[in-house]
Amino acid sequence: MISRALILFIVSLGTSLFASNWEPGEQEHMTKAAQTQNEPRAPMRAEAKIRVQRSEVKPFDQTAIPALMEVHITEIFTGDMNGNSTVRALQVVRPDKSAGMVSMQRFSGQIGRRRGTFVLQGSEVIENGRIRATWSVVHGSGTGGLSRLRGEGGFEGEFGKGSAGWLSYWFE
User: Fold this and answer.
1) CA distance 155 to 148
2) Which of 16, 111, 113, 127 is at a distance of 20 to 30 A from 77, taking alpha carbons?
């Protein structure tokens, strides 16, 4: 009986001491911190100059018009996105020389201070010597410091002059 009373006294003393060290607003601060960890972060924006280092176009299916071409490209990114990319694309070339393209590319390098790789899935339009594209990060494709990367972006440019690219991104 005395040991039970002693235990209850120690527990109540510890609770009283803990409560006396409690500072107003601490619960609110802890709740906000927990919410911040669970809520998605606001997207950040990375910009880069993209230069084609090498490109190769091969016939894929020319049995009808418009022709389908397979495109292999190696690119270099400089800026907030710093690295290189290998691209594989399927292009439909219309008689007026305009084209549409779908692509997959693996970026290897860094965004800000994070280094790793990830895959971009793109859709491109080529008209009058210009290219315009949208792309998105393939879910689950990030490695290293870029694991859990998500994002969307694109690029615009003129052939032979490079492109201005951007990526609005966040980490899950």
Assistant:
1) 22
2) 127
Q: What is the pLDDT of residues 29-52, one digit of tens each?
A: 333 444 344 555 789 999 999 999
Pairwise CA distance, residues 111 & 120, whole Å = 14
Q: What are phi and psi of 162, to 5 degrees?
A: 80, 175
Identity (one letter) of the amino acid at 163? S
The torsion defined by the Cα of 125, 126, 131 and 134, in degrees rounded to 10, comes to 10
53 pLDDT higher than 90: yes
Higher per-residue confidence, 15 vs 123: 123
Q: Give the CA distances from residue 91 to residues 40, 48, 87, 94, 167, in Å, rounded to whole numbers and listed in that order.
A: 36, 24, 12, 10, 23
- Domains of the chain in start order, with CATH, are 2-38 (no CATH), 44-171 (2.40.350.10)
What are the beta bridge partners of residue 49? Answer: 78, 164
The Cα 81–Cα 135 span in angstroms is 14
In contact, 121 and 96? CB cutoff 8 Å: no
Please tell me the least confidently modeled range out of 14-18, 41-45, 128-132. Answer: 14-18
